[in-house]
Amino acid sequence: MQTLHWDGSVIKAIDQCLLPHQEVVLSLDDVDGLIAAIQRLAIRGAPALGVAGALGVALSARLRTGDGRLDEEAVRADAERIASARPTAVNLRWGVTRALSVLSEGAAAVEAEALRVLEEDERVNHDASSRAADLIIDLCPSRPLRVLTHCNAGGLATAGKWGTALGAVFELAARGAVESVVVDETRPLLQGARLTAWELGRAGIPYRLCVDSAAASLMKRGLVDCVIVGADRIAANGDVANKIGTYSLAVNAAHHRIPMIVVAPESTVDEELADGDLIVIEERAADEVRSAHGVLVAPADAEAFNPAFDVTPAELLTAVVTERRVMARAALPARVR
Amino acid sequence: MQTLHWDGSVIKAIDQCLLPHQEVVLSLDDVDGLIAAIQRLAIRGAPALGVAGALGVALSARLRTGDGRLDEEAVRADAERIASARPTAVNLRWGVTRALSVLSEGAAAVEAEALRVLEEDERVNHDASSRAADLIIDLCPSRPLRVLTHCNAGGLATAGKWGTALGAVFELAARGAVESVVVDETRPLLQGARLTAWELGRAGIPYRLCVDSAAASLMKRGLVDCVIVGADRIAANGDVANKIGTYSLAVNAAHHRIPMIVVAPESTVDEELADGDLIVIEERAADEVRSAHGVLVAPADAEAFNPAFDVTPAELLTAVVTERRVMARAALPARVR
Questions:
Q1: Among A244, A297, B180, B264, which has the minimal tally of Cβ within 10 Å of its Cβ?
Q2: Residues with Cβ within 8 Å of residue B87, at least 6 apart in sequence
Q3: Are A267 and A47 in contact (CB under 8 A)?
């Protein structure tokens, strides 16, 4: 099963809100439907959003072509709505921009460019995760490894079946270097418990779930050799926006001298932003916190903070790895030098 | 509404598993029912467990008296089962031991001693929380304060209506020193979202919920002036076992130079234990993590780490406050000296 694909006229996407209990494939045949799917996180994950952005423009170009004439202005308006459907992941606008770049050549050219974005995705993520695996093998003396990950940066966060951070885990497992994975459940939307657990189970890699706040205690107990996460936007200086909770993990990993590695495609790097303070953080509905998997748990009138992401300063990270480079920090933790 | 009381023959307890949506009072008329209520966390919170332990022995002594004769051996067996119903909170055994100390004087004496434990609870917690409020006023220059708390150390964690850590918040609010409270939801059993939110709402103190992993990010954004939590067991050196997630908060509070204060009765201090490494940590069922408020969220066969508590070393805490003393650390964070 592929997370995202294009069947020639519609976008097919696994509905990630329904996993792990139901495997439903959405058929998205208009731009509004795509935007709604992105906003309710049926499609999520920075690399997948890049592909969805490109495919969305291809869909728009197809729908906005009549009598052999493409309404470029209408496509550009659709493209802007898609690109701004969620504010933090820069990949969404990157994918939209890629597809728009050939708009003047017509709908077929846009579709071809979107398909290139789709095809590149899996290769790029393989390259990034393979490079991350090499680095982790170098950094972490103990073997097999107990790896901790947060949220889902697996195949479900990309168009394909591999992933970025979880791709590195798959790569390490293929090399016989993984004992087990600690999976942060990742409240509020439980992408760890629902999606990462599902992917690891299918891959036959042993894992144990934990509540997010237990990760630090597991580090203290010596049960974590390495933390591997994805990214939603990386500033030019290496500061990383990722799922809420990543920053807390980074502070704790640094405190315990445990390497923390970010794996992401270059399309996640936003060279326009000098540092992470400039990254816009999406604040989502309080209902996500008041509820757990659709069940109200708190008082119905409770207010909530619900930032979808946080920003981790580069100096807390051991390395940021893409398909092209390792943005390593000057000061690796003492234990991993 | 009082969390726990004794009506002369049965223990009455608010069923904390059903809050905030249902307010149901349990009538516990035998020891097995009490133990089951403690194990499923219908009765929870270290101070409340102390009172429940004492009342449980009173209940046993009443039931084990026939024809004017008290079966001491049977009461001692019941008492041991109550005291070991949960391993981490030392208060449970402390309360049992208090009531047992007068066993040779008969059931009426045991009942009277248990009622003394009950009556002392609210006064002791008032004293501890008032002392903590004094300290926090001294330590935190900004006013009004944005306080963060974890789990529930309110009236619901004690026999009465006041609490320990949340008692300090109530005390600070009564002095006009609280702007608002950040409430960690406290997965897996959501005592923050369910119980602390409910108590703060009833008290009319503004609060906002957050997922546990967001606390660090809120500290980084300057939205937290002070962290106040309770304790389940305190070692002689000041190391503190408390709800899972407390350790992560302590590491983050230290990193951000935010004072972190523990408030608890002296009955939580276990002078027998030299340090926190000796504290037994209860590992609870994986189902609590696989599910959220009774709804399965993860794959049904997912394994999980589910430690109910973690241990925070004394050096990460600003102070541990009881009704008798402030166990202050030598090294207060620079910002709060």
A1: B180
A2: B280, B281, B282
A3: yes
